[in-house]
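One-letter codes give the sequence; backbone shape is given numerically. An example follows:

. . .
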Amino acid sequence: MLRAVLPALFAAAAQAGPQVDVVHWWTSPGETAAMHALADAYRAAGGQWRDVAVVASAQARAVVLARMDAGHPPTAAQFNPSQPFRQLARQGRLHALDEVARRGRWAELLPAVLLDAVRVDGHLYAAPVAIHMPAWLWSSKAALARAGVKAEPRSMVELFAALDKLQGAGLIPLAHGGQPWQDLNLFNAILANQGGRELYQAVFRDRDPAALQGDALRQVLVNYKRLRRYVDAASPGRSWSDTTALLVSGRAGLSFMGDWAKGEFTQAGQLPGRDFGCAPGLSPRAPYIVDGDVLVFPKDRDGSARPAQELLARVATAPATQLAFSARKGSIPVRTDLDTRSLDVCAQAGAAALRDAHRLVGNTEMLLAPEQLTALERAVSDYWNRDIPAQAAQQTLAKILTDRRLP
């Protein structure tokens, strides 16, 4: 199927059969299916794919770094557009993709916020593969109907009203997994939806002292902590997948989680719009937080891997590959020029948001150094779980985000 629709520009490369070994952590059923779509596309372009799957992201990155240090790097590796990726680029350990990007018209077809995330000192060092948004609002249609909630909330006021009705019906109003990363993810969702793009950017991108000390952020913290009364007693330590299962079963009404949660609904045979709701924000203008997967291409000793790397970069960003990958993984294509009507309504809503540059913001992993992100996660989780005044939590966040000792 893909062989018939891939662009003719791959035909010349088909005779050479360049081989890539790709280190990645696409190991769940949906992720594996998406990886096979990418691998099949590369083979259809004449290449040879060698799969190196590692269960978790941290371990996969450790494998990549160990191989680079030992002098036999992988041809390609899955990464996130994060500060560790930028460090590798600045150390001169990755091949730049400027020519691939120029020929592929990335500047015209990919969102600027994503290109900025993979641009280091004026050069592009990664091929974007998929976009994930970590703050989707999910709902159980059955739970909302049982509680008398006629429509998914589209404002903070409507959110709390719906949570009250769900609680009154004896359901779990807000499904939340009480792990530190999930606590921060929920905070980011409230910051984006209540504070808007301007406050989100001021806090995480600009680290503006006035915003960090202002009343708007304090009110975000107040409402974030207010959500604590709507989670169930089994929340602490629960995984995101087990938490999503509460919505799938109709035991819980609402949840903020990334679009990877969609796979839990689809595996249960549920359909968006019929069995569950999905919204990339509380309002049509809510910020769309951009996160996702990229491929990086470590430098080899003699540059012989370069043709294979450039072919994979072109294949990964080709229209047919993008649609096939996203349909299997639940992500959004990185290109804004595609006809996404073949994707489900959730993906179509995400793709529409992606085309609105005024809604796009970077994820904290893009904007903060690892040390800052770890400290922020710990502080937000402490505030969620302990009796800490909002003003004290705000001072802690301001200190972390303006600490000059952190990059």
About this structure: Residues 36 and 212 are 44 Å apart (CA to CA). Confidence is low (pLDDT under 50) at residues 8-14. The chain has 21 helices and twelve strands.
